[in-house]
Write a structure and sequence with these properties.
Elements (H helix, E strand, L loop, with lengths): L9 H16 L4 H17 L3 E5 L3 H13 L4 E7 L7 H11 L3 E7 L1 H4 L4 H10 L1 E3 L8 H10 L6 E2 L7 H10 L36 H32 L1
Parallel strand pairs: 1-2, 1-4, 2-3, 4-5
Helix pairs in contact: 1-8, 2-3, 3-8
Length: 244
């Protein structure tokens, strides 16, 4: 169920109807569903200090739904960058939390302080332990290679959706009436494909071969303006402090 916002254009929503029709006739593998649930159960049971990580993207929603089906109680953690978080993630979060009783936590970091160093992942591991994520193989060749080496679980993480395809994820969400981030409907009148869109942090996020910066300017110019304003203000404050 795509959550609709004022950022969507009429053309976007028209195109989305075609996607929904496709999702309605697409089957997903029940064997994969059952396998993923069993992997989640095993990982969380064997690792006392562990959690479910969410980005509130499409893969995370499927992971969370499967996690809820296990009946296991573990922390669900959303790591966000306070200065660059995608505001549409909050719509998905609010909808899901209204309909599911989970032990939810948000951990907020400053993008400029931790992104390159990876300090945020270190801090999250110290606090919550090993993490279960919605990472899938078909998102990149590197992830597929990691799966061939480690399988569903590496030293500190578990990836129970590794073998799911993009279309299976969308079909599962549609048929189970799960909330889907507005992001996937920002289609630029057909110039962007939904399987390439992400709930990444904004302004300086890594690209996906879709013209990421152009896409952000088209749908999030107001957010980008605010980020740039805050960055300028912070630089001016730093100069003042250095001069004191």
């Amino acid at each position: 169920m795509l959550i609709k916002t004022s950022r969507h254009t009429e053309k976007d929503l028209e195109l989305w109807k075609d996607y929904e029709e496709f999702d309605s006739i697409t089957e997903y593998s029940n064997n994969k569903v059952n396998k993923s649930i069993s992997i989640i159960k095993l990982f969380l049971t064997l690792n006392e200090k562990s959690c479910i990580m969410t980005s509130w993207g499409k893969d995370s929603i499927v992971l969370l739904d499967l996690f809820c089906k296990t009946g296991i109680k573990k922390p669900v953690v959303y790591m966000r960058f306070k200065d660059r978080a995608n505001p549409d993630c909050d719509y998905v979060r609010d909808y899901f939390l209204e309909n599911n009783n989970i032990d939810y936590h948000e951990e907020v970091f400053n993008y400029s302080e931790v992104r390159k160093s990876g300090k945020h992942w270190i801090e999250l591991f110290k606090k919550y332990g090993k993490r279960c994520t919605g990472i899938r193989n078909d998102e990149s060749g590197v992830r597929a290679l990691q799966w061939y080496i480690n399988g569903y679980q590496s030293i500190n993480s578990c990836r129970p959706l590794s073998l799911w395809s993009n279309q299976e994820v969308f079909a599962y969400i549609h048929k189970n009436k799960l909330p889907l981030s507005p992001v996937y409907g920002y289609l630029g009148g057909g110039r962007y494909k939904r399987e390439k869109l992400r709930t990444h942090s904004l302004y300086g996020s890594s690209g996906d071969g879709i013209g990421r910066k152009e896409w952000e300017k088209e749908y999030y110019q107001d957010v980008l303006n605010r980020i740039e304003y805050n960055m300028t203000k912070d630089k001016e404050m730093n100069k003042i402090m250095e001069a004191v």
